[in-house]
Amino acid sequence: MNGTLAVARYTLLELSRRKLLLVFFVIGVLGIAAIGIALKLVPTNMSFGGGPPGTPQPDPAVVSRFLELQFVRTLIGVVGFFALLIAFAIGMTAIYHDLESGAAVAIFSKPVSRLAFTAGKVIGAFIAMVVVVGLLGLEARLLMTLFGGGLEGAMWVETVAAVANASLLMLIVLALSTWMNNIIAAVVAFIYNFAASIVVGLHAQVVNAGVIGDNPIVKTVLTILYWLVPHPLMSDASKQIAKAQFEMFPPTMGPGGQVPGPGAPTTDQMLAGVPGGSGIEDILWWAFGIAFMAALVYIAVRRKQV
Amino acid sequence: MAAVVSVEGLRKRYRFRDPWAVNYVSFELQPGQAFGLLGPNGSGKTSVVKMIAGLLRPDEGKISLFGEPPGNPKARANLGFAPEDPDFPKFLRAGEVLDYFASLLGLDEGERKRRIPETLAFAGLDKERRQVRQYSKGMKQRLGIAQAILGRPKLLILDEPTADLDPLGRRDVRALIESLKASGVAVLLNSHLLSEVELVCDTVAILGKGRVLKEGTMAEVVPEGKTLEDVFVELINEAFPQKRDNLPTFITDVENK
Lengths: 306, 257
Fold this sequence. Notes:
The complex is a heterodimer. By secondary structure, chain A is mainly α.
């Protein structure tokens, strides 16, 4: 236990002094502030409507609500994006540099088990992630307090979800960087994460909404793939935002006021394709993913000869 | 008296098709004994000590460290290991590195407060405020020795401990080894500096291509009128005869001058 705590403590201290993490954090803080402020200032200086005489003018209240929802959606997306960057920054360095520099030679000759070392590294990395992403989430929440937008409660859930998703990605990078160069590990993890997000998106469209088609083979393949990749955890905010937007701009009133043709997806179908709040099975799948990846990190560290 | 470390029929190779880096090496080390492990580059000295420290897994053979396999963390509680070309978490300072390692050794706060400043002073790093990444090789080597003695080990393994040290640092390491030996600590010394080994070690083993070519007390290995270096060179030349005057022709060619 002492070994685990010592490793965690000094991993945190090291991470706090790493320039890469600091740079990502500063970019995150500035990026969230810039995007938040820009999304609020730019629309207020823009005029809506226009077009040829006789074109129906949008209701200013509807436009304002639409912009607020866009503001919230963007903030949620930006926090999630920076959480992933932080996951890469921590995952690429937390264990790799000890193994690569030779520091592990001195550490592993001490009376500390590889399990205690791995646990300490994972705990230290996780705490660093919670602190950094938590601060970014707090900043986004403050912007929402300043500028409104609704769905304030969802921001905390989204921040927790961002930490959870990024933790899983961080563990993948940690495990891979024990086997291979940390940059290659990050690239492999990025490709895997990207492929997983495509599978999850397609699953929502095809299996949940039946938007793209109704082929049972495609559905089965997608369902199998879906349960082979991590499911990003999320709040219900995306669905609420989509629902509000459909209420403001119903599909029966397209951009030109035209009525959609037969066979076009209904509002319910389109809403079913928007990922909703994560359910218990997603949380359990995430927990299994975390346990599995943590075990992989341990096996990789245990097998490592330094 | 129970051996501090016992190595029996040790074999190791890094890849299946590679030659054996360590090939049937056996020896024992008693408390208070200083054992010199010698050999040319690539003879397997570092592989042997890394297996004793639990950092590498042997393919064959048996290692007993204080009666336990070295993979058991308890067995390493009384081990101090100063690796060749040591490195440490880059963003920590010397005092933090020692505090980190003291925590891994399970030293309580009182002991840490007593030992760390003294150890830093011994290593000449007590006034150093920079992070490890800014250290010279010599400073890292001194920190490597400092962390190795921090736990007051019963077995101290020094892998090329003086390679990057200045003459004063070398003298300090010699004095350290003598002092530890006198207090019953076993020392396993890997070094190319044969004169140093001759000064401090009671027993030596000379390795060549992973095998023990000669082993015994200093008196057994080095006959009257010869030095350890003479014996070493003769032994290696006999075991692995090769052309030694293979200087590049652009150096030896008179017309190029």
